[in-house]
Design brief:
10 helices; binds zinc ion; two-stranded antiparallel sheet
Length: 250
């Protein structure tokens, strides 16, 4: 998962979404059948070409699923699920691009914390690596251990469990491949005599298909070779990368 900046919708599409929502609220739709039918009917309207276009642009060149970054993002995904939350059915901030597998795994699972906030991480609102950890040897993503809580991050735990981030073999293989490529770029950089930090950053970003870079430059990732070697030999380059990539400080 990576942090994705949400772009604004074109005004016309935004106005359409607002009017669909008003219509849904007035009709007081409820239950999966009614909500599903209402969504399907409106999903065919022109505003959704613009919605898909903006979501696709937010997801990047390869249009990957915003949750797993591995499979192709094919569906408009409601972060707050449709049926229990029809008031967010056409809310732009609630729409993501998802893959079939993540959609199936998430289903209607959407646990909230004691204050009513979602435990699932929203890639357009949260910094995933504040809550998640990565094992470069297995390629598996899991919840980050939070020393202040003396426990694993609750949102990391729920996100891992809902999307089965620690149990999807294809995902782990993809992560390992991306990590190897990132490590290779840093290894090559270390052999150069001139060190252009911006060029390094741009090669790394280009290769980071699975959003692993903030982890690589956080204190945990920075202990792994060759990132550890970069931190030791060129601390200013490491610090610049960490800042630019918004790597978690702990
Ligand atoms: Zn996915």
């Amino acid at each position: 998962m990576r942090r994705i900046e949400r772009s604004p919708l074109p005004k016309k599409a935004a106005r359409s979404l607002t009017s669909f929502q008003r219509e849904a609220n007035a009709a007081q739709i409820s239950g999966s059948k009614q909500v599903g039918a209402f969504w399907q009917r409106h999903r065919k309207k022109a505003a959704f070409s613009a919605v898909l276009e903006v979501l696709g642009a937010m997801a990047g060149d390869r249009q990957r699923c915003m949750y797993c970054l591995d499979s192709h993002g094919t569906d408009i995904e409601h972060f707050w699920p449709k049926t229990p939350y029809p008031a967010k059915l056409f809310e732009w901030e609630n729409l993501l691009l998802g893959c079939t597998e993540c959609g199936r795994l998430k289903g209607s699972k959407f646990p909230l914390d004691a204050t009513g906030n979602p435990l699932l991480l929203d890639p357009t609102a949260d910094d995933p690596w504040e809550h998640l950890d990565f094992d470069p040897r297995t390629g598996i993503i899991s919840a980050r251990f939070d020393r202040s809580l003396d426990d694993y991050c609750p949102r990391g735990k729920e996100t891992t469990s809902i999307l089965q981030l620690d149990r999807r073999e294809a995902l782990a293989i993809g992560h390992k491949k991306t990590y190897r490529r990132l490590a290779q770029i840093v290894e090559e950089f270390l052999t150069q005599t001139q060190h252009d930090a911006q060029a390094l950053l741009s090669s790394l970003r280009e290769a980071d298909e699975h959003g692993l870079l903030p982890w690589c430059f956080c204190p945990r990732g920075g202990e792994e070779a060759p990132f550890a070697a970069l931190r030791e030999k060129l601390p200013e380059v490491f610090a610049l990368c960490a800042a630019e990539l918004k790597a978690p400080a702990a």
